[in-house]
From TrEMBL:
Protein's name in the database: C-type lectin domain-containing protein
UniProt entry tagged with the keyword rRNA processing: no
InterPro entries: C-type_lectin-like (IPR001304), C-type_lectin-like/link_sf (IPR016186), C-type_lectin_CS (IPR018378), CD209-like_CTLD (IPR033989), CTDL_fold (IPR016187), DC-SIGN_domain-containing (IPR051004)
Species of the source: Culter alburnus (Topmouth culter)
One Gene Ontology MF term: carbohydrate binding
Residue span of region Disordered: 1-32
């Protein structure tokens, strides 16, 4: 049998193409894989964008709250500052008025002082000092208010007797007119409650509103008389 006969007996349909369908299937699978990858990537991009949006929103909210809090704090601080300024201005006005009133009272008292007060140039004990004043129509000075305290203290640099004592009853301070002490200008930790210091002096080296001290009545001090009618020129 020759070769021509062999080729003629082979039908074309017996020859099957096994490569075409396999290549097409692989292409379809690769396309689906790429689509799945693209879908997954798109999903993650969407999630990331969503998270970024959430973070931005949270950041904006936090900044808004912070700015609002700072603004409220600033407003509150400014209001407190203004209130403090107004309070200080009010206190300053009160102090200024009080100062003017005290100065006016001091001027009035000073005008009367030439006839009412006598400050000694010598020293005596408390009883002798008081007797000196009584012999001249007056008595040791009585101080019942801040104006008079400032006025009397302004005249001397040494300790002087005033008309206050608890010599009759320890701890029961009385003025020489028998009136009970209502306001005192004591040094710190004074008066002492122990016996032996029953007469009161002014110590001008201490602050003007805190310069009273109880001392032994036998101590030698200068003194201040009030309401005297006559004073020897040599006194």
């Amino acid at each position: 049998m020759d070769l021509d006969s062999i080729y003629q007996n082979i039908e074309p349909e017996d020859v099957k193409d096994t490569g075409g369908p396999q290549i097409q299937s692989q292409s379809q699978n690769e396309g689906q894989t790429q689509k799945q990858r693209g879908s997954t990537c798109f999903m993650w991009m969407t999630v990331c964008l969503g998270m970024i949006c959430v973070l931005l929103l949270v950041s904006i909210i936090v900044q808004h709250i912070s700015i609002t809090s700072e603004r409220d704090l600033f407003s509150s601080t400014a209001e407190e500052f203004n209130q403090t300024i107004n309070s200080l201005q009010h206190k300053n006005t009160e102090l200024t008025l009080k100062k003017l009133k005290l100065e006016n009272e001091l001027r009035k008292l000073y005008k009367q002082g030439k006839d009412r007060f006598f400050i000694s140039s010598e020293s005596k004990n408390w009883s002798e000092s008081r007797q000196y004043c009584r012999d001249r129509g007056g008595d040791l000075v009585i101080i019942k208010n801040e104006v008079k305290q400032r006025f009397i203290t302004s005249f001397f640099k040494q300790r002087v007797w005033i008309g206050l004592t608890d010599i009759q009853q320890e701890g029961n301070m009385k003025w020489v007119d028998n009136s009970i002490l209502s306001q005192g200008f004591w040094e710190e930790s004074e008066p002492n409650v122990s016996g032996g210091e029953d007469c009161i002096e002014i110590n001008p080296t201490s602050p003007v509103l805190n310069n009273w001290n109880d001392e032994s009545c036998s101590s030698m001090r200068k003194w201040v008389c009030e309401n005297v009618t006559s004073v020897p020129a040599s006194s």
